[in-house]
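Internal tracking record. Fields below are filled automatically when a chain is submitted to the structure queue. Please do not edit lines marked as system-generated. If the sequence contains nonstandard residues, flag them in the REMARKS field before resubmitting.
Queue: standard
Priority: normal
Entity type: single polypeptide chain
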Amino acid sequence: MKRISLQSLALAVVAGLLLSSCNSQPTNSEGGANTSGTSDEATVTSDTTATAGGASGSVRPTGAKPAWGPDLKPEMQAVIEQLKSFDPKPLPELTPAQARKQAGPTEAAMKQMRVSNIAAPPLNCDTTSKTLMPGVKARIYTPKGGTAPYPVVVYYHGGGWVIANLDTYGASAQALCEQTGAVVVSVAYRQAPEKKFPTAHDDSFAAYQWVLKNAASIKGNPGLVAVAGESAGGNLACAVSMMARDRKVALPKYQLLVYPIAGSATTTPSYQSNTETMPLNKAGMEWFFKHYLRTPADGKDPRINLVAANLQGLPATTIIAAQYDPLLSEGRTLADKLEAAGVKVNYKLYNGTTHEFFGMAAVVPEAKAAQAVAASDLKGALK
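SYSTEM-GENERATED OUTPUT FOLLOWS
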């Protein structure tokens, strides 16, 4: 099964995964980072209760929970079951070209929507494609309502700097646009192994600078710009903030980091406890590092190793975390290090979820809640 490549089909993906994400409110408590890494769980009550007949809209698993995920939420488990139905090969067994064609979490969530008879809602943001500079394109999401100039969120997708694309993470970008009322610039940075470190980081910073200089041309306010990203994209977003600080460029007003890659050490507690998890595990992350980093020494670069970087003066931050994720420990550490550096942090751990859950608001209630928290924090910073 190949990834969707045409924008028209991508919009269908977005519409499907966005269901129930719009006009939602946080159902978990607000607050800063804690020290345990577990007690700040967002408690969410599902409104998609399974019924005996598998009624339209119900999301439920069909089998036993995997050994690696005894506390998976039912809806998350259902998506993982759909992912397993594709019989995906482990990343270490694939070339990057093969991995880019393999079905992943986005397709699994879409399949679950079909199984559960969940219809797609109308999209409330317009999209256009734009070349920001040679080799770097973007998809720009513009609110259909409201009054320009809008705040701007520069968004960086995940995929370990190697796989995935704007379509794969379209639901997240669309949700941020719809729920914040901001223009979202989703950046297609160049990927490895064709372009190794620091290409994705340089492209991401160049895209941020492009937005600052050209915000008016996309109905944006250059004085109200935030950065956001998932996984590798969360790493890129934080690195962009550091580069802006160090190069005397206007800082982002806020940063949203969704289960960010924040270090290169694969010996943390969450790496050790997530060797079999789906869709991401220890071996998968090691595969990403192998293809993106030129040498192991690159892993010590502060743009990769955020937990050991100078974090002074960075913008206020929201960090979203998933329980079954090799990146959990470093995300918690990053939150603590940011707070120690004087940065205001809102850390939210969603128990029972896996890496990549954030864009699945149509089927996973925790994703709906996480999106609402992220949107609320961004709106507060971009007034």
